[in-house]
Amino acid sequence: MQPPAPKPGVLPLRPVGFGDILDGAIATLRLHWRKVIGFTAAIGFVTETVTVVLEHRFSDSSRLNDLRNNPRPTASDIVHALSGTLATSGLTLLVTMFASVITTALMATVVSRAVLGRDVTTSELRRDAREGLPHLLGLALLMPLIACLTIGLGSLPGVLIAASGSKDAGAALGLLGGLAGGLVMVWLYIQLCLTAPALALEKQGVLASMKRSWKLVTGSWWRVLGVQLLAVFLVGIATSLIALPFVLVGSALAGDGGGGLFDAGNAPSWTYLIIAGVGGTIGSAISLPLTAGCTTLLYLDQRIRRESLDIELINATREN
Fold it and tell me: Which residues form the DUF7847 domain (predicted)?
């Protein structure tokens, strides 16, 4: 019978499953929430502010109502009706991706120290963030850009056909191409999802960190996808429970004509969006470090599986 793996901190120093990764992320946030909640709340505030503006700008249900009343809609009619919803969802996804990359890189130092059972000071976090800021911003901008290019290239043939005069055929092809581009984007995102912790912990450049993520994920794509999806799903449920009271209050204060939660006839009002945004900010302050912690622990677990990092970590704990 093998002795249990050492656990100096929040994660056993052996290959682990999703339960250990989630427990480690929760334990890290519980131990170090005073140090991280400030910057995650700030990132969440910026994300929710952008989301509120996008929802108010693009959430117009009149186009969907027109589509509902159209007995024989064409492909161009469908694209026109869904354009606002697709624009809101797409831009919100890009902003969320940007925030996730920033948070994961900033949390990597905290999580790696927590795995060894060590503390990290606020000054150390600020120093690491300041030193790695250029590369971090470059990565945070590059990841949404890759997503835009992937979906854009998939939709480009349909856009060109529509511009030449065949609107219905172009719209249909554009939708199919965009869907195909979205699938490719998911595959690329999972391949590159460990770039942020690699960037923060290995102190390499953006491209070198992307290559590290690619190497660590290759051969384990489905496992990495499963861990990421479970983390997002479970953390998303908790975030929704936090935000739900704010959504209900915002809907009640917006009134029947204010475009609240149950009013499908109008765009959401500022009252509803602002109150719901406050709930979203509070939820993001908790969800962002949890998902970032899961990603960093997944990165460490992949290195343990591929590179026997656990031996180095055990030696590091014995030296201190």
Answer: 81-299
d(CA 139, CA 205): 9
Extract the tokens encoding 68: 């509902």
Contact (CB, 8 A) for 55 and 37: no
Tokens 């131990």, residue?
31
Q: How confident is the model at residue 63 (pLDDT cuts 50, 70, 90)?
A: low
Helix, strand, coil distribution of the chain in percent, nearest 5:
80, 0, 20
Determine the distance from the C-alpha atom of residue 39 to the mean position of all C-alpha atoms in its chain, rounded to a whole number.
Answer: 16
d(CA 285, CA 38): 8
Backbone torsion region of residue 77, taken as left when φ is above 0, otherwise alpha when ψ lies between -120 and 50, otherwise beta: alpha
The region that residue 141 occupies, defined by phi over 0 for left and psi between -120 and 50 for alpha, beta otherwise, is alpha
pTM over 0.90: no
